[in-house]
């Protein structure tokens, strides 16, 4: 990777990925694009262009004019939002992906897009979910992700596009606020712990989901994109994970720092149904074997860092 173009750069992953990539490759070599513009480091600290990912012609032009050799397609509607607006999710998530793949095919770009544990479904083995297994999701987001994995494989096999991806679990970050994902309770809980000393969870106790702290997620993207292609038996997409926990466990971790923290429950049926369809834990052995994936943060280490960083941010 030398000249990188990113779509959805102001989203949950993109806003932090941009910063990391500019630190590694130089700000001038990372083009951020999004459908909106904000007063943020993503916009102000390096190249930025407005882009609707449904506009293939403009996407192609921006990539060509920038001299990109890599496309990272991050623009998508997340799980809960996609379930509320399924037709919009299909059109945006799939239409944008096709345009990004077509741009990469025409210009010979290396390509990355994230998949998700949402690509699994209720019939998928829930414990230590294998890399290669049954994928029959029951949400529009999951359908998008499975279709996306297959489409990226197709572009590699049919056209030789160097497509790569990971199946992210829930991602936790102190930089971006919750954005409509089912696992976002594990982000919001830290904000509420510092602001109010209590949290009402929309996910029921005992509901395990895989999670990862954002620094580990960003490093995984870089490591996969820099990996030797000849060692990649899988491409789209690798299971990755760092931890699996249920709401009571994250509350207990927070109480090590905020002893009087209270947890209550008011379950959201839509997001609970989505969570119930996902694995409790997944097997990341393929990513470890093929490109050396390794997470650095466990639950307690993440909690400590989240609370410290958020306390500084919220001052």
Write up what this structure looks like:
This protein is of the alpha/beta class. It has two domains: 4-169 and 235-239, NAD(P)-binding Rossmann-like Domain (Rossmann fold), CATH 3.40.50.720; 170-211 and 242-313, UDP-galactose 4-epimerase, domain 1 (Alpha-Beta Complex). Helix content is 44%, strand content 15%. It is built from twelve helices and 14 strands. It has helices spanning 14-25, 41-44, 56-66, 79-84, 86-107, 140-159, 185-195, 214-226, 247-255, 269-276, 285-291, 299-313; strands at 4-7, 30-34, 48-50, 70-73, 110-112, 115-116, 163-164, 166-168, 170-172, 198-201, 209-213, 238-239, 243-245, 262-265. Strands 3-2-1-4-5-7 form a six-stranded parallel beta sheet, sandwiched between helices. Strands 6-8-12 form a three-stranded parallel beta sheet. Helix 3 runs parallel beside helix 5 (86-107) and helix 7 (185-195) runs parallel beside helix 9. The longest helix has 22 residues, at 86-107. The radius of gyration is 19 Å and the shape is globular. The mean pLDDT is 95.
Summarize the structure.
The chain folds into two domains: 4-169 and 235-239, NAD(P)-binding Rossmann-like Domain (Rossmann fold, 3-Layer(aba) Sandwich), CATH 3.40.50; 170-211 and 242-313, UDP-galactose 4-epimerase, domain 1, CATH 3.90.25. Helix content is 44%, strand content 15%.
């Amino acid at each position: 990777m030398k000249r990188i173009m990113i779509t959805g750069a102001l989203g949950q992953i993109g806003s932090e990925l941009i910063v990391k990539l500019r630190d590694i490759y130089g700000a001038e070599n990372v083009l951020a694009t999004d459908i909106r513009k904000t007063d943020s480091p993503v916009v102000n600290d390096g190249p930025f262009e407005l882009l609707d990912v449904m506009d293939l012609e403009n996407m192609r032009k921006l990539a060509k004019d920038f001299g990109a050799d890599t496309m990272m397609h991050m623009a998508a509607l997340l799980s809960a939002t996609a379930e509320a607006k399924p037709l919009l999710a299909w059109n945006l998530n799939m239409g944008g992906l096709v345009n990004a793949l077509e741009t990469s095919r025409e210009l010979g770009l290396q390509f990355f897009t994230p998949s998700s544990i949402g690509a699994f479904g209720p019939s998928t083995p829930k414990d230590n979910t294998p890399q290669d297994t049954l994928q029959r999701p029951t949400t529009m987001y999951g359908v998008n992700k499975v279709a996306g994995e297959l489409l990226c494989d197709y572009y590699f096999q049919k056209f030789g596009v160097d497509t790569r991806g990971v199946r992210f679990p829930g991602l936790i970050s102190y930089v971006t606020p919750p954005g409509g994902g089912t696992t976002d309770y594990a982000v919001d809980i830290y904000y509420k712990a510092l602001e109010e000393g209590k949290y009402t969870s929309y996910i029921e106790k005992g509901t395990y989901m895989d999670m990862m702290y954002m620094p580990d997620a960003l490093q995984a993207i870089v490591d996969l994109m820099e990996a030797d292609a000849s060692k990649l038996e899988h491409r789209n997409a690798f299971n990755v994970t760092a931890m699996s926990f249920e709401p009571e466990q994250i509350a207990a971790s927070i109480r090590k720092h905020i002893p009087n923290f209270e947890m209550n429950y008011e379950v959201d049926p839509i997001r609970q149904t989505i969570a119930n369809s996902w694995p409790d834990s997944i097997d990341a052995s393929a990513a470890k074997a093929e490109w050396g994936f390794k997470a650095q943060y466990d639950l307690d280490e993440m909690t400590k860092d989240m609370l410290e960083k958020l306390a500084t941010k919220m001052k």
